[in-house]
């Protein structure tokens, strides 16, 4: 197990932020997830603490009390040094359908022109890679997916839209992701996923966790319409594969 130089700082009265080196690295993400699991199992009561991992940080939030920063900082440093390999929650590879029809993929032609390639090649590349969920935020259920092939890297839009529709699949820099609800946004939209990854009415609103994997596959407009109906009535069967621990 690699020890990383972590830093700890207050993040408001009820939270502290633990930070790892500021690089996108799956080994760092794995260490963050391991430390989170270790804290939950050995040191911090999960009924009192919320723990939010993302990219190179772990935010610890106490649900009730103001945190005494110096004591918790000292404890976290000690706990990190004494951490052991923890039993992790199950992680999955989720295979998600995307319709790249130009009615949905409103930036696809422009992206193809910017990247000097064809629409077909963009779809092929987008579907051929497996992405890692590095963070969930911005909107409830918005997954920041790393592992985008370099050939698909494109800058955010110069002018963000005031309205991006629910399910829109976008590209921005080295990332791809799905808008779980209608919102403003500046990512380049290349398709739409009609199944609900986030639903506030479910016992577990967000099905996917940080550390899970995502792979997209292309569907027709007719399949999109069918899956949308199945998702709305709650009978869509998610395609997921349990990953080895």
TrEMBL record:
Gene3D superfamilies: 3.30.1360.40, Cyclophilin-like (2.40.100.10). InterPro entries: CT_C_D, Cyclophilin-like_dom_sf, PxpB. Its EC number is 3.5.2.9. It comes from the Bacteria. Transmembrane segments: none annotated. The keyword Hydrolase applies. The keyword Iron does not apply. Residues 6-208 form the Carboxyltransferase domain. Keywords: ATP-binding, Hydrolase, Nucleotide-binding. SUPFAM superfamilies: Cyclophilin-like, PH0987 N-terminal domain-like. Pfam families: CT_C_D (PF02682). GO terms for molecular function: 5-oxoprolinase (ATP-hydrolyzing) activity. This is 5-oxoprolinase subunit PxpB.
